[in-house]
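Sequence, please.
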C-alpha cells in the first residue's frame, strides 16, 4: 500500500456538485457532509497524460457482498488499515474483487458540446439525484486534511477547514511517476445508496474509474503492472477487454443440509479447443484455493467442480469466486450477495457479465 496518507471510505451526504472544464487535470468536485464535517470529493474526469479520456463503468444495479457492512458504518471517515486491506474486507480491488468485468470500462471525454454526453455530465446526473433524494454516499479513496488543524478554506466550496478525498479511481497498474501509488485492495470508487420513493426498495449505484495508461494485470503483492496474457489475445495496458478461455457460469452456494463438501462451481469452455486445467484453481473471497488438477474441459463442454470444503468455502453471507490460471492470474470471476445465497438448494446462475 503506497498511498501516502492512507486509504479508507467516507460515509456522507452530497450538498453540491461542480464541473471543472478548463484545467489540465479537471475534476468533478462534490461538496459533502458527514453530519459533523464538510469535505470535498475530487473525482478525476481527465488524465494529465495520453490517452486523456478516462475509462469508466457505472453499475446502475450494484449488488455486492460488502454493501451490508457499509450500511453498518457510522457517518464520517473510516480508515482501512493496511492489515484490513485484504480479501474479504470492505476494501475495493477492481481486479481481484470481481466487482465488474473489466471489459465493461469504456473511455469517455470529460467535456463535449451538447447535453449528457461527457463524463462531467454523467457524474453530475447521479450527484444531483443523490442531493434530491438525500442518498447516502460511500466514497473510497485517499484523504487530505482529515487531521488538519489550521482553518484554511476549501479552494472550491469555501468551507472551513478544507478537507476531502481524492484518488477516487483504480490505484494500481500505473507506471512511471504514478507507480509509487500502486497497491492492492486500495482502489477508489463512488457508491451511492438511493432510498426508494415508496420506502420498500432501496437502490445502489457504483461508479468506477481508471486511466487508460493503467494495466489491468498487476502483481498480487505490489499492484505494479505485469506483462501477462490471458487466453490467446495480447493484453495491452489500458485495454481491459480479455478473451477468457474458461468461464464460471454457476455455483451451488447454499446446498440442502450442511454446506461442507456439498458446494460446487460450474465451468464452461466456450473456446474451439479442449483445455487442460492442471495447475488452475478455484478461489473464494479469502483467496483460499482448490486445485483443478486432472480436470479437462472439451470444446463447448461444461464441468461441475465439487468443492471439498477443506479449502474453498462459499459463504452464505455473500462473496466472490475466482478462476485462476497456472500463473495465479485471474481469468474469470463472479460475485454474489447474501440475498442471492438465501434459498437453500438453488444453484446460482451467473450472466456473461
Amino acid at each position: 500500500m503506497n498511498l501516502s496518507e492512507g486509504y479508507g471510505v467516507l460515509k456522507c451526504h452530497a450538498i453540491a456538485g461542480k464541473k471543472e472544464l478548463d484545467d489540465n487535470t479537471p475534476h468533478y468536485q462534490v461538496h459533502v457532509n458527514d453530519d459533523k464535517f464538510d469535505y470535498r470529493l475530487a473525482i478525476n474526469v481527465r488524465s494529465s497524460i495520453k490517452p486523456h479520456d478516462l475509462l469508466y463503468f457505472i453499475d446502475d444495479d450494484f449488488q455486492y457482498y460488502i454493501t451490508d457492512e457499509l450500511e453498518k458504518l457510522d457517518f464520517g471517515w473510516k480508515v482501512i488499515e493496511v492489515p484490513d486491506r485484504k480479501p474479504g474486507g470492505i476494501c475495493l480491488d477492481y481486479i481481484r474483487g470481481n466487482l465488474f468485468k473489466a471489459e465493461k470500462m469504456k473511455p469517455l471525454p470529460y467535456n463535449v458540446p451538447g447535453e449528457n454526453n461527457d463524463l462531467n455530465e454523467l457524474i453530475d446526473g447521479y450527484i444531483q439525484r443523490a442531493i434530491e433524494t438525500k442518498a447516502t454516499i460511500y466514497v473510497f479513496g485517499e484523504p487530505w486534511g482529515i487531521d488538519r488543524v489550521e482553518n484554511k478554506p476549501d479552494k472550491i466550496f469555501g468551507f472551513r477547514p478544507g478537507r476531502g478525498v481524492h484518488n477516487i479511481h483504480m490505484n494500481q497498474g500505473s507506471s512511471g511517476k504514478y507507480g509509487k501509488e500502486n497497491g492492492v485492495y486500495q482502489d477508489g470508487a463512488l457508491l451511492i445508496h438511493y432510498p426508494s420513493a415508496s420506502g420498500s426498495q432501496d437502490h445502489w449505484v457504483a461508479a468506477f474509474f481508471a486511466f487508460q495508461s493503467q494495466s489491468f494485470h498487476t502483481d498480487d503483492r505490489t499492484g505494479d503492472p505485469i506483462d501477462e496474457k490471458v487466453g490467446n489475445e495480447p493484453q495491452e495496458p489500458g485495454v481491459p477487454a480479455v478473451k477468457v478461455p474458461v468461464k464460471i457460469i454457476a455455483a451451488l452456494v447454499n446446498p440442502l443440509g450442511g454446506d461442507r463438501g456439498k458446494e460446487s462451481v460450474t465451468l464452461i469452455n466456450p473456446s474451439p479447443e479442449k483445455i487442460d486445467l492442471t495447475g488452475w484453481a478455484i478461489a473464494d473471497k479469502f483467496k483460499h484455493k482448490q486445485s483443478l488438477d486432472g480436470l479437462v474441459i472439451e470444446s463447448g463442454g461444461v464441468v461441475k467442480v465439487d468443492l471439498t470444503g477443506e479449502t474453498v468455502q462459499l459463504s452464505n453471507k455473500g462473496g466472490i469466486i475466482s478462476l485462476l490460471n497456472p500463473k495465479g492470474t485471474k481469468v474469470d470471476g463472479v460475485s454474489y450477495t447474501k440475498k442471492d445465497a438465501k434459498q437453500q438448494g438453488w444453484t446460482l446462475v451467473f450472466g456473461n457479465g
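The chain has a mean pLDDT of 90.
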